[in-house]
Amino acid sequence: MSTTRRNLLIGTGVVAAAAAVPGVQYAGWQMKDFTRAGYDPAPPPPPEGHVAWSNWSGIQTATPANIAVPASEDELAGLLKGAGHVRPVGSGHSFTGLVPCNDVIVDVSRLSGVSAADASAGTATLGAGTRIRAAARDLEAAGLGLPNLPDIDVQTLAGCFATSTHGTGRTLHAMHAQIDGFRLATASGDILDVTADSHPELFSAGKVNLGALGVMTQYKLTCVPSYNLVRRVWVDTLDAMIEQAESLAQQHRNFEFYYFPFTGYAAGISHDIFEGEVTGRAQGEDDETLEGLKDLRDVFGWSPWLRRQIAAGSLPKGVVEESSDAYWKLLSTARPTKFNEMEYHIPVDNGLACLRDVIKAIETRKDTYFPMEVRFTGQDDAWLSPFNSGTRLSIACHAAANEPYDYFFSLIEPIHLAHGGRPHWGKLHSLGYEQLVQMYPRFQDFCDLRKQLDPDGKFLNPYLARLFGEDDHA
Fold it and tell me: Where are the domains of the chain?
C-alpha cells in the first residue's frame, strides 16, 4: 500500500503537533531503548565438533552435532537407524521450539521438486523439502495450482503442513487439507507409504504432526487448475473494518485485514478469481509502511492521542491498490523484516469480540507498532488441526525481532484462551499437555500413535516432550 515513512511523519498537521510537544515527555520518550534485554542476532557459538543453528527470527537456537541433508530416502533411512535424537527442520519460520536438538537436525531440502503431475486427475507428487513458491511455480507449468497459500512463501511443504500453516478464506482450508498421501521415514528407518485407505489413523494424524512421527519425504497433493486473482487493498477505520469483516469474508474468495496499532485504521485485502489480461502485482511498499509506523512510535509514541491524530492525517483512505496476476504471485511473499509472532485461532462466532479485547490490551503498551493480522480459515479433519472443530478467525500479533515479546504471554494469550482459542503450532504459545488434551478430541490418540511409532522418543526434544506429556524424554 502507498504509505511511506515520509507520509506518516510529514503528513498534515505534524509540524504543528511537534511544536506543541511538552519538552520533558518528549525528551523522556526519545531516550527510550526499545531493544529487549539479551537480544543477540547471532546464534551461540557451537562446542567443538558441533554446528550452530537458529530459526528465522533468532529466538530458537541449537548446537547439534550435525545438520544432515540427505539426498535420498535410502540415505535418510540409514541415518535414522543409527541416530540418537533427531529433529526435522524446514525453513526455520516457526517461532516455537520444534527444532532445537543436540544430536541431529535433518534438513530435507534436497528432497524437493515436482516428480509427477497429472492435470486431468488434478494431482501432483512433490518432495517434502519443496519451498512453497517453487511448488506453486512448478505446478503452474503443469497447469495446476494450490487452492490457497499462506502469506510467506519460503516455507517447505513439510514444515508448512506439519504446523497447520494457513492462508485466509472463510470457505478455504489450511494447507494440509490438500494432502492425498505422504511418505514417512520412521524412527526405525522404515519408509511408510501412507494414504487414507492404507493407514487411515496415521493419515489423519500425519497431516499435522509437528515432526513428531518421523521425517516426511514426499507428498501427493490434490490440486486445482491454475488460476489468476485480482487483489484489492483499501484503508478504512478499524470500526468500519470490524463491522464489515463477516460480510467481506463471505463476499470474497480471500479476505483479511491488518490493524495498525494506535491509529484507529486498518487495511483490508481481498482476492477474487480473475479472468482476462493480468496487470502484474503493483509495486508494494509494505516495508516502507512498517518503517513509517515504527518512526511514528519512536517520535510520538509517548502520546497515543497525538499518534492517532498524525496517522489519521497521513494514512491514505479508500482503495490504494488493485492488481491482477497468478495466484501465487499475489497471495504469498518473502518477508524481509524479521519479527516474532503469536497467533491464535478463535471460533468464528467469538473472533471479532476477541479481536477488540486484544486491541484494547495491546494499546496499553505504547511501544507496540507492528500491524496485527486477522484471517479466516474453514474446517478440516486432521487430528491436530486447530481448525478441526469449525471455521476459525485467526489473530496474529507481531513484535520486531529485536524488541520485547514477553507480553504476548502475559497480556494477550489469556484473552485468546478466554475466547476458546487454539494456538498456531508454529507461533508462540505457552500451552502444554494438560491444556492441549482438553482442546483436541484426538490429542491423546495422537500421543498414543506417536509412542507406537517412536517408543524411545527419538523424535522428541524438551519442547515436544512438554506438549505430549513425556517429561521423562526431556
Answer: 228-423
